Amino acid sequence: MTGPVHPTRDDPVVGALSEGVGGPVGEHAGRHPWWTPVRVLLVLTAVCFALGMVQKTSCYQDAWQDGEQRYAHMCYSDIPYLYTGRGLAELSWPYTGDEQVRARYEVMEYPAGITYWAWGTAWATHWLSGSPDLEPRYALPADALAGEADVQREATLYVVVNAAGLAALTLLAVWFLAGVHRRRPWDAAILAVSPALALTGLVNWDLLAVALVAGAAWAWARDRPVLTGVLIGLGAATKLYPLLLLGAVLVICLRERRLPVFARVLGAAVAAWLLANLPAMLTGWEQWLHFWRFNSERGADLGSLWLVLDQAAGTTTSPSTINLVSWLFLAAWCAGVLVLGLRAPVTPRFAQLAFLVVLGFLLVNKVYSPQYVLWLLPLAALARPRWRDQLVWLSGEVLYFAAVWWYLGGYLAPAGGGEAGFYWIAILLRVAAQLYLAGIVVRDVMHPAHDPVWEERQLTRTRSKPVAV
């Protein structure tokens, strides 16, 4: 069999579910001339993303003005609030140092890639709105803009414009993932139909980085180190975590004694990151630094183990202490991944190492916003393409998604006062689910026979050899 590996025959969960529609695909099943696996995956992705847009309908209908509904219906999104809260409704350049703009609006607290996207989609929104006259808005207090009817209409259109762009990027990400292992395109379905994608895809702009990470995995699988580095660099300019993928490349290159390849990846990543950041650096150095200062100075925030620790102990851990402990933990975690990669029986796969490194970063991060599950999703899909393990992990993420909105809405607060212990439980269960999947990936690395991708490679090699008589 030289065609794609079919999930009904490869994955026990999918095989069991297929019994309701005739069972696993047969040995002699024909192929549809047009409905290739990749095209089916793209349709599934579009449907899943559309369901995510439907899930935000109640907030969209009132332009995200109902403070309780956004939490009760779990349809919150940063996108419309940042449109009015960061000067995008007035098309202010995010990195301007103009005193009037800075007096009216806070600086965007995101890396350059997301900030460019946010401003670009704001420009598109204004163009689609007929280029409204901005002069009257300058006379209003900045915090009053969100109450203006025309601005509210623009804010909802801004969400639609971003949804269209993020949907296209998600389709691109699935296409990339489907091409990482040529005979296993269906592994990308773990991203394509994920409930995490539907629920969190429009919370913020994280899908920009997801598409670049998926592209980096595709480029590495195609043995294109310079392109891999470029995509990692652009990803790091969009959301810092893709920088950690360099760790996975380093482990593989050390293992296979290909350090010149790592040098090419690193050089391309640094060059791409610098070029992507240059417009921001040149037009507003202080504003560009805001992202770094903001993350250095912030304390324990939503979803983090630091928040659980502070609330449970009734203390406040200083940002400097969190920074120090987090970096020490991440260094130790990465050293463990390095030892794991060097001691494994065979060279671990890029996605396995990348998943473990990014997870280590998230475990001790100061904040775990609900959309951060997207950081792990494409890497997890490639690292452990088994639905049972994915569903165990995703159940923890979906539970946390619900809990964080209920917590913010005050629905988890005890009647007698005090901290919301159920929110702590949701955080701990999410971390436990993440560690479960990490444990499975580590087992696959140390015992490759458990790895579906390695197993398929072995079967492919066996089939390609002459049968011994």
Summarize the structure.
The chain is an all-alpha fold. It has helices at residues 7-10, 12-17, 37-55, 57-61, 69-72, 78-85, 99-104, 112-128, 135-138, 149-178, 189-192, 195-200, 207-221, 225-238, 245-255, 259-283, 285-297, 305-313, 319-343, 350-363, 373-383, 387-408, 421-446, 452-464.
Describe this structure in words.
The chain contains 24 helices and no strands. By secondary structure, it is an all-alpha fold. The protein has one domain. Helix 6 packs across helix 10 (149-178), helix 13 (207-221) packs parallel to helix 21 and helix 19 (319-343) packs antiparallel against helix 20. The relative contact order is 0.10. Residues 460-469 have low confidence and may be disordered.
How confident overall, as mean pLDDT? 91
Poorly predicted ranges: 460-469
Strand content: under 5%
- Derived structural class: mainly alpha
> Would you list the SSEs in sequence order as H and E?
HHHHHHHHHHHHHHHHHHHHHHHH
Number of strands: 0
The residue fraction in helices comes out at 55-70%
Roughly how many Å apart are the termini?
Answer: 21 Å
Shape: globular
Number of domains: 1
Largest sheet: none
Figure out the total of helices: 24
Q: Kindly provide the radius of gyration, computed on alpha-carbon positions and rounded to a whole number of angstroms.
A: 23 Å
Pfam families: GT87 (PF09594)
Transmembrane segments: 155-178, 190-220, 226-254, 261-282, 324-343, 350-368, 391-408, 420-442
GO molecular function, one term: hexosyltransferase activity
Membrane topology: Multi-pass membrane protein
